[in-house]
Amino acid sequence: MSIDLNDPTLYINRELSWLRFNTRVLAQTGRKELPPLEKLKFIAIYGTNLDEFYMVRVAGLISLFKAGIQETGADKLTPAQQLEEIREYLHSEKITLEDRYKSILSELSEEGIEIVPFRDLPDDSASELEKEFYEQIFPVIIPIAVDATHPFPHMNNLSFAIAVKLSDMAGDTKHGLIRIPRLLPRYLETKHGYTPIESVVEHFIGDLFPGYEKIASTPFRITRNADLAIEEEEADDFLEMMEAGIRSRNKGSVVRLELTGDADRDLVSFLADHLRIQEMDIYYYRSIPLNLGALWQIVGDKSLSRLLLPSFNPKSLPPFDREDVFSIMEHQDSILYHPYESFEPVVSFIQEAASDPDTIAIRMTLYRVGTKSPIVKALIDAAQDGKQVTVLVELKARFDEENNLRWAKKLEDAGAHVVYGIPGLKVHAKIAQVIKRKNGSLRSYLHLATGNYNPGTAKIYTDMSYFTSRKEFNDDATRFFHFLTGFSTHTKLETLYMSPAQIKNRLLRAIDNESKYGEDGYILMKANSLAHPEIIKALYRASGRGCRIDLVIRGICCLRPGVEGVSENITVSSIIGKYLEHPRIFHFAHDKVGCYISSADLMPRNLDRRIELMTPIFEERLSERIVRILQLQTADNTLRWVLRRDGDYEKVQRREGEKAIDSQEMLEKYVNKIYTKSKKRNGDYLKKLANKLLEES
To answer: In angstroms, rounded to a whole number, what is the distance separating the alpha carbons of residues 505 and 513?
Structure first.
């Protein structure tokens, strides 16, 4: 019997799958072995994730609903149906969120750290904060009247404020707002812990509106549609257009209003009317603070580091601990697995090239580089030194546009040739090429990666780096950069694979070829997300032929495993732990290439609408090492979740007597062990060398 692979029941909705991912993040707060501040960190991550989800995904669905669009994906759920399920899911999850937060507060209290409102502070701490209020806060915040002559003010995306209801001397009711600027700390420190700033401001409302009596007040926070709609073909100046787009982000329609649970109903109506938001998009929180992402302020308090997991110091392993990057690349290809292995060789790759008089050109792509980038600083130095520096700075990197604009201008001012992306396509590839003149001839060196050139995120994201000086790779890199800087629309790479023209087709062929081996076939793929219908259908067909398939998908997965005759040979795992799993790696047991690493996730946007790169790892010792890492993750029984047929995830439970396998912790220990052994060997070598020199003298 043939099975219709277009059947919508075979697909999990993208947005609902993402919500389940964020639920797995929240579930980390229930791990008994984690210290309390580590749990609070996951609350902050959960909140930050949800902010972006509402700003982009929910805002997009609302726009589709208003435009009358009926279908959006392979699951065939309409925007209206998705919005209803999202709202129901999140309103329900608030109960778990509040319970977990209260539990963390109890644990912190046992450690002598309190997060309490102003009204509950002892007198000494209250006096300290009263003084701080009048000296540091009162001069900065602005009371705003709202009436017939004072219109409701515009509020930027993610604005945080207090709505107030007041009574004048005649007994008439007035409404107003108190804005709390972002430059003020979200939590004020006391000797007892932390106090939310809004609870302090609320206490002194009478001083902000003299002559009025407070009837009610409620803190609130708004979320706007923050997705940029850019008409690239109509723009004369792309930089100017992006700057205007960033400013417009604060003018998008309001898609979420967050309030405290005891909010006065009249104030709720006042806000809803002025912000034009429906009741179903209002979220009331009874025991948790608004703006969960601001909890990073407490998590980042260095005096509380004892309440976090011990930090891991990334290691430089042989040969990177003894040789410079270019010397290594002269005689071997190398793979680094961050953050277990240090990101420093990647930074050194650019810094050494920038300072080397033999370097004639540096080319690279920049997507998210961070606010303080040693890599961009090295590129600026190289350009000022007269080297040919070509950089594609992707200005459409969501929520990094402003930072990337700033770096792009600095690079241009230094004399670098800056490309601002490709019209209609986002450049997400991670590649850097250095060209040197050595002994009268040109020699090229190449770095390809699954993650961004950002030393900050490289400490918390797991990613792969690949260094090579192979001619075939560098020839393709040259073609790739010519494509970025020129007019060509038909560039085809010979050894590397580039989307949108090549990666998807190569993966489809590899899946189909592996499926021909039936029960002897094996596919192992790791990505952040799996949502591309063509890739999913190819995996379904391979499973139907008996091919065994292990997928390690951290976030969104629209493939439904365990369906008889379709996907019973597919397992989907998600690793959620201390580090954010970020590499994209693809292994096919019978392929001539051991494995592929890529910047591309298995989604329509990556494979069809972005410039991405996929790198074949030919060298057996390197590909075997990569596959072993993936096999360790599929054996994880501590951090791993497994996707069920119904779309929910189930935490893997250890069987009685089974050894605990925490893949992230084991990799930390493994790298530490290698590092220690290499240092000992190095010490013995230096000792023998010193003895030899003494004997000779």
So the answer is: 12
Cα dihedral 165→168→173→177 (10° resolution): -30
In percent, the amount of the chain with pLDDT more than 90 equals 81
Number of Cβ within 10 Å of residue 147's Cβ equals 10
Tokens 């009025």 -> residue: 212
d(CA 472, CA 411): 29
Q: Where are the beta strands (DSSP E) in 496-569?
A: 497-499, 522-527, 548-553
Among the listed residues 222, 227, 464, 422, the one whose alpha carbon sits nearest the alpha carbon of residue 338: 464
Q: How far apart are CA 432 and CA 427, in angstroms?
A: 14
Question: Strands 359-366 and 388-393, how do they pair?
Answer: parallel
Token digits for 32? 């008994």
Q: Are 216 and 266 in contact (CB under 8 A)?
A: yes
Residues with active-site annotation: 428
Q: Coil, strand or helix: which one is 74? A: coil
Distance separating alpha carbons of residues 691 and 270, to the nearest angstrom:
84
Q: Which of 115-129, 230-244, 596-610 has the weakest average pLDDT?
A: 230-244
Is 80 exceeded by the pLDDT of residue 229? no
- What pLDDT sits at residue 73? 87
Number of alpha helices (DSSP H) and beta strands (DSSP E) in the chain: 20, 27
Q: What is the DSSP string of 562-628?
A: T-TTTTTTEEEEEE-SSSEE--EEEEETTSSSSEEEES--BSHHHHHSEEEEEEEE--HHHHHHHHH
Tokens for 173, please give them: 């009711």
What is the C-alpha separation between 18 and 226, in angstroms, rounded?
A: 18
pLDDT at 552 over 80: yes
Are the C-beta atoms of 359 and 387 separated by less than 8 Å? yes
pLDDT tens digits along 340-355: 999 999 999 999 999 9
The phi, psi pair for 247, rounded to 5°, reads -65, -35
The one-letter code for the residue type at 173 is T
Which residue carries 């201008």 as its tokens? 409
Question: Residue 252 — very low, low, confident or very high, per pLDDT cuts 50/70/90?
Answer: confident
For the stretch 687-697, pLDDT in tens is: 454 454 445 43
> Distance between alpha carbon 138 and the CA centroid of its chain, in Å?
36
CA-based nearest residue to 426, from 530, 504, 500, 534: 500
pLDDT for the residue 235: 39
Give one word for 122, left, alpha or beta, with left for phi > 0 and alpha for psi -120 to 50. Answer: beta
Q: How large is the greatest C-alpha to C-alpha distance in the chain, in angstroms?
A: 102
Positive or negative, the CA dihedral 526, 528, 534, 540 is positive
d(CA 562, CA 570): 7
Paired tokens of 315: 């290691």
Distance of CA 506 to the CA centre of its chain: 27
